[in-house]
Amino acid sequence: MKNTHKLTKTAVVLGVLASSVLSIGGTVFAKSMVGKVSYNEAVRQHKVAFDEKGLTKKGNIAYGKPRKYKAPFTVGNDKKDLKKVEIEDNLEAPLKLDAVTIHTAEGTDVTDKWTVTKIGTDKGFKAVSKDPNATWGQSYYAEITVELRKDGTVDLGPYTGKDGSIQIPNDITLTVNDDKHKEPTPPIVVPPAPVKPVVVKKVIDKDGKLVDERNVEFNKSYKYSMTYTIASGRNLDKEGVKLVDDMEDEIKLGSVVVKDQSGKDITKDDKAGTLKTDDSKSMLTWTLKTPSDYAGKKITIEAEGTLRNRPSLKKFFDEKSNTTRVPNLTTEEVGKDNYKSNTVHVIPQVLKGTIDKWIVSDDQDNTK
């Protein structure tokens, strides 16, 4: 008979009635309405996320914190000669393997009786029994520790549902001779949902308050404040992240200061990023060196501007308010996606048309 019996998603029940439970390594598995299962049938393994309190169908995982799986499996006794017994776990891309051990059903560590090799550097593992026939009819469990890769280094988009929730499934496979049995795993949930870039721009008024518009005088400096929430849940290091502010040509760009979420000045920190300014275009660009270091965090830029009195300001004249309103916004560029801020305005001083006439004093009259 082939190894065809399926486990329920919460338990392995061997040779017992549905009202019973099975303890493996001191962990009690939930009840299962599967009736009676003979040892003459090979039971598929099943992997569930678990914590110190026991097993669960659902589990959360957070960046930088290990999460364990338990994968109980039984090698059937329906074949006389076992040539190969292997379990294989190919982790989904957002997860990385930390450790794996193999135990008997009673909890004895028998990892040394299996040849365990990693898939890639940390993408999963294969465990092959060194003595397949010694596993005949025996029950085991694999204890697997994984981590969620650093935010900003992997794309969680394929695992994100319409409601914004992220669920990462993972399968595990038992191979006995030529029979392969693959079993799905309850998905592990990533809280919170990925952060979408939010970009906010303000003008700093004379009192230091952040406002959407302010009056300015020609050729006198003032400041803009831009706050960028860096995206998360994407492979930022591959896509690249730039913070760009392309001001109107009538605005002369002055000093620029870049700060991280804690308020630390990182303007000249080469490990954080690179600042480039183009005076001819009144444009600044801050390119993050390792964007994943700032995934989901905020970066603030303060930029000094000076409004120049040019005839070209006419294009910004607003007849409704009878004022000249010079707009400006800023952009967070993530790969090919651009996330724009709100628009702020500076309003230059109003100059009324005047004319006057004077007589040139004798000491200034060079015609004499």
In short:
Keywords: Plasmid. This protein has 368 residues and is an all-beta fold.
Search tags:
368 residues; mainly beta; Immunoglobulin-like; 5-stranded antiparallel β-sheet; 1 helix; 41% strand; disordered N terminus; Fim_isopep_form_D2_dom; plasmid
Draw up the topology in text.
Layout: E1 23-24, E2 27-28, E3 48-51, E4 54-55, E5 59-60, E6 67-74, E7 85-90, E8 95-104, E9 114-118, E10 124-129, E11 139-148, E12 166-168, E13 172-176, E14 179-183, E15 188-190, E16 198-204, E17 210-211, E18 213-216, E19 221-229, H1 236-239, E20 241-246, E21 251-259, E22 273-278, E23 283-288, E24 298-307, E25 317-318, E26 323-324, E27 326-328, E28 331-334, E29 337-340, E30 344-348
Parallel strand pairs: 5-15, 18-30
Antiparallel strand pairs: 1-2, 3-4, 3-6, 6-11, 7-10, 7-13, 8-11, 9-10, 12-15, 13-14, 16-17, 16-19, 19-24, 20-23, 20-28, 21-24, 22-23, 25-26, 27-30, 28-29
Poorly predicted spans? 1-45
Helices and strands: which structural class? mainly beta
Overall shape: rod-shaped
CATH architecture of the largest domain: Sandwich
Radius of gyration (CA) equals 33 Å
Overall pLDDT metric? 82
Stated plainly, the CATH topology of the largest domain is called Immunoglobulin-like
Kindly state the number of beta strands: 30
**What share of the residues lie within helices?**
under 10%
Number of helices: 1
Into how many domains do the coordinates divide?
Answer: 2
- End-to-end CA span: 124 Å
